[in-house]
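Need tokens for this chain, all 66 residues.
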Amino acid sequence: MHRRAPVTFALINIFIIQVTGTILFHFLEKWHYIDSFYYTGMIITTIGTSEPVPQNSLTKILAVIF
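Here are the structure tokens for all 66 residues:
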């Protein structure tokens, strides 16, 4: 029973980070939601990709923090 709480907590945190990143990249970079969602997912999973590339200095810093 006690093992379920950490897993649930981790999944909720990942979901919150994904949604927050998607919204921030959408508004700061003027990307479509799907591109923002994709980019945030690439950052979270540390897969990395060359597309899309943030152009704004603030979003570059945000990507490093993520």
